[in-house]
Amino acid sequence: EVDVLSVGTLMHEIFSLYTLNIDKVSDEKSSNDLFDSLVDTVLKSDEFQRFLTEPSSKMTGERVLVECKKYCYKTFLALKNSDFKVKKSEVSFGENCYYPEIDLLDGQVKIKGKIDRGDESEKYFRIIDYKTGSADSSDKSLFAGTKLQLYLYGASVAKKHGAEKSPAGLYYLP
Length: 174
Fold this sequence. Notes:
The protein is of the alpha+beta class. The chain has helices spanning 4-20, 28-43, 50-53, 55-80, 139-144, 149-161, and strands at residues 85-93, 102-104, 109-111, 113-120, 124-130, 166-173. 47% of the residues lie in helices and 22% in strands. The chain has six helices and six strands; from the N terminus they run ααααβββββααβ. It is globular.
């Protein structure tokens, strides 16, 4: 039986390594070569060995990797002619982190977490959050206070940049 959390963790690890090395990509072949080398490295870790050895995990892993490879190349194409560059991937925010913690309720509540990807251009930043399941980003969820994740990430990044950069977008990517 395959753990959905493990599949999501595998995908996040691959996306993180890929985007941090995206400057090595110039076309589909180099994208696939980078992807293949990263997958070989990631699957050797103890956490993901079962995707190579256990029959049920292996089949799921193969399917996931096909989709991940396509997604990585699409990411390259999206960034290729963009002013945005990947600045951080799988980066924590909170006390003593690259991005600062967020204080709520006059400092009574301190929020910390991990941002999947932060892209920056000269004047703007955007936050990307990968979703292996569904993502409800409706206004109703926002006003009900049940889906504040992206907005909290954006508040932390905005706090880091002050007036230097403005938010361009906060995105869930399925």
